[in-house]
Amino acid sequence: MVGMWTSTSTVTDSGTARPVRVSGGEVATYVMGDGPPVVLTHGSPASSYLWREVAPVLARDHTVHVWDLLGYGDSRAAEGVAPTIARQARTLAELAAHWGIDDGTALLVGHDIGGGVVMRAYLLEGLAAARLALVDAAVLGPWNTPFTEHQQRHAEVYRTMPADIFGDLVAARFASATHHPMPPEVARAYAAPWQGADGQRRWLDQVEAVSFEDTREVVDRLGEVAVPSLVLWGAEDRWLAPRTADLLAAAIPGARRELIPGGGHFLPEDRPLETAHALRRFAA
Fold first, then answer.
1. Which of 160, 150, 116 is nearest to 136 (CA)?
2. Which helix (H) or strand (E) holds 248?
3. What is the rounded radius of gyration, in angstroms, for the C-alpha atoms of the chain?
4. What does the pLDDT look like over 225-240, one tens digit per residue?
5. What is the Cα–Cα distance from 242 to 185, expressed in whole angstroms?
6. What is the pLDDT of residues 68-92, one digit of tens each?
7. Threshold 0.85, pTM exceeds
8. Rounded distance between C-alpha atoms, residue 25 and residue 22, angstroms
9. Do you find a cis peptide bond into 45, omega within 30 degrees of 0?
10. CA separation for the pair 122, 91 (Å, rounded)
């Protein structure tokens, strides 16, 4: 399969890498394809690498915009800027304006906290959209996993932990994100942005910044969603149980709910073709 990325920072000729300055720092963005716009927003602790097999399929008949959240992948938050969901939502609105797709023509897709980012951008930042797709999305709380809560309570312990031990924890974290074991080279690519002292610092920065408080306001306004919406979930998600998909779809007027067998929390990694085709059907 042709992939857009051979690593977290390399794009083939089928996609163009473009750094974009925003109010919160510098964002790594990628654009490929031609047609109606689709924006893919990853979650934590992933990067745009998550979409490497989904984006080319969507790009057959869409212009696909992919980005690394501030503080993730190849994006860097400015000094003193916390990578909160609220800040990421503001960044998404800024990117959409930069791309010229803030006119209500785009399908906005969000995975994990990227779902919270997309919904906050739509409901609170005023970003117009044609359609919304939420993939194993962290919107309804509480959505923190026990591991994330432990890190938040003991952040200084994790910040001062030897880098090799911290790296082992990161590897174990990614191992639980999929239903099917990742090939070693894929696991290494996901972990790469979090290696070394800088990666360890950035990991804890995002852990401390992420809070359900940033999606609480979204939950209160889900009834205001006025565009077609899809709630897409991995049937084997161990981080956010599929029951959450039922509750989220019920809270959004007219939303469709679809489960994909054999998919874990990182559904686009476990089942990329099924994920891409479900999004294409929804966008049609």
1. 116
2. helix 243-251
3. 17
4. 999 999 999 999 999 9
5. 28
6. 999 999 999 999 999 999 999 999 9
7. yes
8. 5
9. yes
10. 12
